[in-house]
Structures are given as C-alpha cells and as structure tokens.
Amino acid sequence: MSQTYDISCDCGHVKMTVRGEPKLSLYCHCGSCRELYAADVLGLTGWDEENVDLPDDSKLFHHKTDGKEMHRYGCPKCGMTMYGRHKPGIPVIRHNVFRKNNGGKLPSELAPALHLFYGERVLDIDDDLDKCEDGSAVGL
C-alpha cells in the first residue's frame, strides 16, 4: 500500500508531501552528516525525486557544507531543517520530521534497516540492525 505523508516544520511555514516508499531508511554515522546536522547520529529516509513535493526555494533557508556537495534546507522562520541532499543527490528527510508529524512516532514502514558509516561512529549503538563500516551497503 502506497503511503502519503504530509509534513511541515514547527511553525507550519514550510510544508511538503511525500508519497510511496523510501529508497532507504537508515542511521548515518559519517562525519559529514554529523557536521551538517550537528548530531551524533543522523536517522534519515532517502526518496526518489518524483515522490517528494519540495517547497519553493524562496520559502527555505539553504546551508551547504564547505568543500562538500551536501546541502540542507529548512524553514527560515522556526529554523527546522526539512530535508537535505547528499550523495547520490536524492532528497533525504530526517526521521524526526516524520515523528513530529506523526504524534512523536516514526511510522513503522519508515523504520531504519541499517547503520551506515558505522566505522566513523562517535557512539556505539546496541541494536539488531546491520552495521556497515562504510557506505558500500548503499553504493557509496
């Protein structure tokens, strides 16, 4: 069954619609994600471009990391990051955006399948998910 997710920032200024199933859902431990999102671990979903109705750029802030093709976009009013673009360029939406718009819970169909770049981790996570030391599990 194809899902539709209507998501928004904390203040409602930025709204997005996401349809279908993600290409991936995982926890990323790479230093680049930690730097871009100021987080020890990034829980994210990656989507085919045609499955995400992205907001008009004029409604967003844009931040790019120095020297890398990694971008994040969000609401200039409340500051909430709505999505990013990393390799391979697809929109990625953090798990917490879906939690915020789903009563604090990540929809079960968006559950992460693995840990990526676990070799770069700054904290150990004891769960049953596969732990890929690099990005090879998703072709990076």
Can you walk me through this structure?
Residues 5-119 form the CENP-V/GFA domain. Keywords: Lyase, Metal-binding, Zinc. The strands form two sheets. The protein has an eight-stranded mixed sheet with strand order 6-7-8-9-4-3-10-11. Strands 1-2-5 form a three-stranded antiparallel sheet. It has 140 residues and is mainly beta. The chain has one domain (4-138): Alpha-Beta Complex (glutathione-dependent formaldehyde- activating enzyme (gfa)). It has helices at 31-37, 95-100; strands spanning 4-8, 15-19, 24-28, 42-46, 52-53, 61-64, 71-74, 81-85, 91-94, 114-116, 130-131. The protein is 9% helix and 31% strand. Strand 1 and strand 2 form a beta hairpin. It has two helices and eleven strands, in the order E-E-E-H-E-E-E-E-E-E-H-E-E.
Query: How does CATH name the architecture?
Result: Alpha-Beta Complex
> Average pLDDT, to the nearest integer?
93
Q: Identify the CATH class.
A: Alpha Beta
Distance between the termini: 29 Å
Helix content: under 10%
Number of H/I helices: 2
Outline the low-pLDDT stretches.
none
Structural class: mainly beta
C-alpha Rg (nearest Å): 14 Å
Instruction: Say which CATH homologous superfamily is assigned.
Output: glutathione-dependent formaldehyde- activating enzyme (gfa)
The CATH topology: glutathione-dependent formaldehyde- activating enzyme (gfa)
- Order of helical and strand elements: EEEHEEEEEEHEE
Strand order of the largest sheet: 6-7-8-9-4-3-10-11
Number of domains: 1
- Strand-residue proportion: 25-35%
- State the total count of DSSP E strands: 11
Task: Let me know the largest β-sheet.
Answer: 8 strands, mixed
Inertia-based shape = globular
